[in-house]
């Protein structure tokens, strides 16, 4: 690990967890080189190499001359979630910006964020906009209230839900949020540490704000968002269980816990993922959906009483013929699902089934 630093307490740590994507990482590091030269004291870069065997370590050694970059190579693959936790724990910045190894950075927008961080309260969690391809995707904070109140962070979490905030490049994470979650295990986080940190942050009524410009260019390497359709449906359930688990451990009010569980359980995205899976592979969907949902309901424990309508909807999706969805769904939705399935097939063939795992 390179440990010589210009500034031991930078404003921002750019944290990059990586595994076997040396070609995409090399492109991201072109942005990093410009950033390190432009802001040598304000920014550090931390990289955790999850025991890659594709030349990643050799690539990183080329950047050993920079005193504001550090990298660590894990002696074994520790899994995606723990790799994210490790890279954040090894950083020193007041805030952390997680960047996927196949993403890119808008350097000019990053300068604007640094200016905003100079005025921000240290414990503020900042949500960014993002760019995927050529399309700007806005994640707007709800206009529930114009000033911060003790309930505002919780209302924000209810408005967004876990699925909407799943891209890690949307989050500028305050150091305090990570330090307050050190006792949470990777299992508590169901594979998504930054979302667990966010929900815990909201549950403790810490501040949440928004930066109006996108900084992370999502999937610049055209590898990201390659989740098999079945996995997308399962990931939604993980989001639900993760948010519920964090709120249980945060000891928040039962009323808020109830609302958050229902918000996740009956999210439009959850049903849409299941319909998309059925359209992609009806036989696989029909064979697996009942078992997946049964296991999911068991983990809800005391909240199983609220799953009856959800179970009815899932059974309806299973029983109804494909023709029903093709007739009832808007053509724009069907087109989007078809393009998703085509991309999944194409990516599976080109990358030998390489998924989004880090």
Question: How would you explain this protein's 3D organization?
Answer:
The chain has 358 residues and is of the alpha/beta class. It folds into 2 domains: 12-218, Spore Coat Polysaccharide Biosynthesis Protein SpsA, Chain A, CATH 3.90.550.10; 229-350, no CATH class. It has helices at 22-38, 56-61, 80-89, 107-117, 152-164, 175-179, 193-203, 229-250, 254-265, 268-280, 282-299, 308-319, 322-328, 331-350; strands at residues 12-18, 43-49, 69-73, 95-98, 104-105, 125-127, 130-132, 135-137, 171-174, 208-210, 216-218. The strands form 2 sheets. The protein has a 7-stranded mixed sheet with strand order 3-2-1-4-9-6-10, sandwiched between helices. It has a 4-stranded mixed sheet with strand order 5-11-7-8. A hairpin with a 2-residue loop joins strand 7 (130-132) and strand 8. Helix 7 packs parallel to helix 8, helix 8 runs parallel beside helix 11 (282-299) and helix 11 runs antiparallel to helix 12.
Under the CATH scheme, which class of the largest domain? Alpha Beta
Strand content: 5-15%
Q: Can you write the helix and strand succession as a string?
A: EHEHEHEEHEEEHEHHEEHHHHHHH
Number of domains: 2
* C-alpha Rg (nearest Å): 21 Å
Q: State the CATH topology of the largest domain.
A: Spore Coat Polysaccharide Biosynthesis Protein SpsA, Chain A
Which homologous superfamily in CATH is the superfamily of the largest domain?
Spore Coat Polysaccharide Biosynthesis Protein SpsA, Chain A
Shape: globular
């Amino acid at each position: 690990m390179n440990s010589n630093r210009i500034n031991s307490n930078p404003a921002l740590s750019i944290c990059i967890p990586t595994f076997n994507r040396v070609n995409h990482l090399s492109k991201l590091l072109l942005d990093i080189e410009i950033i390190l030269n432009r802001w040598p004291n304000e920014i550090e870069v931390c990289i955790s190499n999850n025991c890659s065997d594709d030349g990643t370590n050799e690539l990183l050694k080329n950047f050993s001359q920079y005193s504001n970059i550090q990298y660590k190579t894990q002696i074994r693959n520790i899994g995606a979630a723990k790799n994210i936790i490790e890279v954040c724990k090894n950083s020193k910045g007041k805030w952390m910006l997680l960047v996927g190894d196949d993403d890119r950075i808008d350097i000019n927008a990053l300068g604007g964020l640094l200016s905003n961080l100079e005025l921000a309260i240290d414990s503020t969690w900042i949500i960014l906009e993002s760019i995927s391809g050529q399309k700007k995707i806005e994640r707007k904070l709800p206009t529930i209230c114009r000033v911060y109140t003790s309930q505002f962070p919780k209302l924000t979490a209810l408005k967004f839900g876990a699925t909407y905030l799943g891209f890690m490049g949307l989050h500028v994470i305050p150091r305090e949020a990570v330090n307050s979650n050190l006792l949470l295990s990777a299992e508590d986080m169901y594979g998504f540490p930054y979302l667990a940190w966010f929900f815990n942050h909201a549950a403790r009524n810490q501040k949440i704000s928004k930066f109006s410009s996108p900084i992370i260019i999502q999937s610049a390497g055209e590898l990201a968002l390659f989740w098999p359709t079945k996995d997308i449906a399962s990931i939604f359930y993980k989001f639900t269980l993760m948010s519920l688990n964090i709120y249980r451990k945060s000891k928040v009010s039962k009323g808020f816990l109830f609302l958050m569980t229902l918000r996740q359980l009956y999210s439009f995205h959850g049903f849409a993922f299941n319909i998309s899976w059925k359209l992609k592979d009806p036989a696989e969907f029909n064979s697996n959906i009942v078992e997946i949902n049964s296991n999911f309901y068991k983990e809800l424990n005391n909240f199983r009483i609220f799953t009856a309508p959800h179970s009815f909807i899932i059974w309806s999706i299973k029983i109804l013929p494909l023709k029903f969805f093709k007739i009832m769904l808007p053509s724009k939705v069907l087109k989007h699902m078809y393009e998703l399935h085509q991309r999944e097939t194409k990516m599976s063939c080109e990358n030998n089934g390489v998924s989004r795992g880090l």
